[in-house]
Each structure stands twice: as C-alpha cells, then as structure tokens.
Amino acid sequence: MGQMSCGLIGAPVQSGASQPGCLMGPDGYRTAGLSQVIEELGFQVTDFGNVAPQQSSQSTHANPAVHDLGETIGWASALKDAALDAIAKVDLPIFLGGDHSLSIGTVPGVAEHAAAKGQEQFVLWLDAHPDIHTLDTTDSGNLHGTPVAYFIGQTGFEGVYPDLQVTVSPKNVCMLGIRSVDKAERDALSEIGVDVHDMRAIDEHGIAAPLRAFLERVRNANGALHVSLDVDFLDPDIAPAVGTTVPGGATFREAHLVMEMLHDSGFVTSIDLVELNPFLDERGRTAQLMVDLCASLLGRKVLDRKTRRY
C-alpha cells in the first residue's frame, strides 16, 4: 500500500455562531503546525487553501431569530462541493473550521461520495451540543445548531438549505460528550433515535464502551466514518478557545483515548475540526491541543509527544 494522503480544507465560516472569531480557525490550525505534524506521521499532505462561500439568494426565514441565513447557505453549498472534490483526490480530507455550521456542507458531501461507492455513512459527533435544531425550533437563530437535523433528513429545511442527495440514517449517528440540550432538542433526540451519550453516561460507564459499540456497528456495515470534533467537546479548562463553553467536558485523557480508538479502528474517512476561535485562546493552547488530538487520530501516541510548557 502506498503513502496515505491527507487534504486540509479551510472553512473560515462564522455566520452560524453568535461570536466572531471562528473565521480565524483554519489559520490557527495552520499556525499550530497541523501540516507538519501530519507529515511527520508519514502522510502526504495537500493544503487546498480556504473555501469561499457561494452566493445565495435566500436571506430571511419565518423564524425571526434566524440570522445570516444566506451566508450560511452559501458556505454549505461551497463546502459540499469542496468535500466531494477533496474526498475524490485524497484518502482523508480534514475540514478546518470555522463554526459547526460547516457540517451542513461537509457531511452531505462525504455522504454522497460514500453512497456512490455503495457504503453507508456514519457520523461520530463529539460535541457539548446535539446540534439537532431545525430552522423552526432554534431560539438563538445560530445555525451551527442545525447541521445534524439537516443531514439526517428532518423536515423544515426543504427549499432553504441545499437539496440533499443523500441523508445519513439517524441510527448511524453517535453523539459523545453531550451536556447542553434544550427542550426542542431533547424532544427531537427521543423521537429520532440517535445514539446519544451525555457526560453523565460517560461518568458512569466510561467513554470507551459506547465508542467501541458504535465502531462495531461501523465495522459490521463496512461503513465510512466521518468524525466531527467540536472544541467544546473538551473541558473549557483545557480548551478555552470556543464561544460556547460548557463546563464538565471531556478530559485530556478521555479525548486522546477516543482518538486512539478511532485510529485503531481504521474506519475514519473524513474529519471536521470545528469551533476553534483563536480570538478566545490562551497562547494557542487550544489550537495546539486540537492538533495533538488530530495527530492521535492519525496514529501518534500520547507518549510520543514532546513535553511542552504553557
């Protein structure tokens, strides 16, 4: 087998969030040395640069809370095209965010590619939030709260978000680290049947067991696995550079365990690194941690890391 290839795709989108700064995310990862780290692990790396949003004529919605709708749709259309292009060219595309609305584009893109190959698409959602709002249920109007509802085919997006060629089955979505859920999302989760493991479940049973069970389902289906890693999956004490901090997140050890298990599985076919807001970081420590986690996912062991002072 030849050298594995990675592609970096910058998605400097912040229209889905409430606080500015996520547009700096892709360059934060680049500054933290993501390319070099991946190359040291034996991958061939291509940086495809940053995606630019397409034009969208859609700008308003019946829900007055929704903001920056046209811009977010423009990003989604561009990122779906970028995902389809990148995943045809490299073994592993890594989307550098940018707020989590980027998954409105990336997940449908990789799912379409998987379907063309006859594979089921699976998604591991590592996040404090389930992001399963529709355009009608969001109170904040922040569209980074809508991607999961959209790509699993919930109603209310038709004629607004880009038409979906392929939906991801809710049973193929696993959420780990959830700890901030409002009533509309709680109702949706109970109805839809997504596999959700909140921090209480992780405290009681550990993080390895639910992940192992999910990876077994991916194995049995011979599926493609997209990993969407939100900075706020992590505890804000170790990852402060996010506009949606929720206490009680995954520890350094839990997060690296997840990444090492993902690497051992060999199933990961695409990755989102989202919600990095360098404007809120402390001397780059969050960007560095996210790079280290990505390295663990690609095969580096925690013990291989150089000692670092902050």
Q: What does this protein structure show overall?
A:
It is built from ten helices and eight strands. It has an eight-stranded parallel sheet, with helices on both faces. The radius of gyration is 18 Å and the shape is globular. Helices cover 36% and strands 16% of the residues. The chain has helices at 25-31, 34-40, 69-89, 103-116, 147-151, 183-192, 199-205, 208-221, 252-265, 285-297, and strands spanning 5-11, 44-50, 92-97, 121-126, 173-178, 195-198, 224-230, 268-274. With 310 residues, the chain is of the alpha/beta class. Helix 5 (147-151) links the parallel strand 4 and strand 5.
- Counted beta strands: 8
How many alpha or pi helices?
10
Q: Give the radius of gyration.
A: 18 Å
Approximate helicity band? 25-40%
Overall pLDDT: 96
Which geometry do the CA atoms define?
Answer: globular
Explain briefly what this protein structure is:
The termini are far apart.
Helices and strands in order, then pairings?
Layout: E1 5-11, H1 25-31, H2 34-40, E2 44-50, H3 69-89, E3 92-97, H4 103-116, E4 121-126, H5 147-151, E5 173-178, H6 183-192, E6 195-198, H7 199-205, H8 208-221, E7 224-230, H9 252-265, E8 268-274, H10 285-297
Parallel strand pairs: 1-2, 1-3, 3-8, 4-5, 4-7, 5-6, 7-8
Keyphrases for this structure?
310 residues, alpha/beta, 8-stranded parallel sheet, 10 helices, 36% helix
